[in-house]
Amino acid sequence: MDFWEVLILAIVEGITEFLPVSSTGHLILTSKLLNIYQTEFVKTFEISIQFGAILSIVFLYGNRLLKEKEVLKRVAWVFIPTAFLGFLFYAIIKNFLLGNLLITVWSLLIGGILIIILERYFKKKEGKLKIKNLTLKRSLVLGVIQAISVIPGVSRSGATIFGGMFLGLSRKEATELSFMVALPVMAAATIYDLSKNLQSFSSSEMNILLFGMIASFIAAVIAVKWLVSYIKTHDFTYFGIYRIILSIFFFLFWV
Length: 255
Fold this sequence. Notes:
Layout: H1 3-16, H2 23-33, H3 40-48, H4 50-67, H5 69-88, H6 90-97, H7 101-124, H8 136-147, H9 156-166, H10 171-197, H11 203-230, H12 237-253
Helix pairs in contact: 1-2, 1-11, 2-7, 3-10, 4-10, 4-11, 5-8, 5-10, 7-12, 8-9, 9-10
């Protein structure tokens, strides 16, 4: 990959990681558009630049996590089933799901339809719970829901936000929980993948990973601040429509 390809992929990751549109799906589709072949390094790059994005959450929400122990506890409990299922199916995720254009496009389409349907439901019935009031049992259930996002195109943030709202959280609290849960989930995924592949990368490839992390961090900070402001007056219906349009485009021209 050249400089511009790395920069584009990193910005795409940073912007889409915390939006309900699937960052992994967008990275796969962007790689397809740029004709970047899905080598082992590219797959690791697409996983590891998520680390730059999660540093934006340390920057924006680290203080809250340190001060609010009950919130931190819920984040940990949501993480447990996601981590277990992620490690259990690591080989399938890395070798079959990542880079699979057909699965990604179908997930984008189905996810977009579900977002529109769920938003109609939540207009009539939206929860009011804060993160600290979510029971530990419901936190584990939310972790299982979030684990579905190992399928490219599903969207980890989308699964967590709508799963949280379904379990009684307010839109703002569910969205912020999706940000904070990203910390252990993506840190674990990045560290695990790098531990298995780091020794096979050259120094130039390591520089590419570092640059990608920095670029995705900056893009993620901007995206998170924008989304927090956006949900004060909007729902996620437009994201559902966007996912449907994007999936149709790729069905017509690429799949």
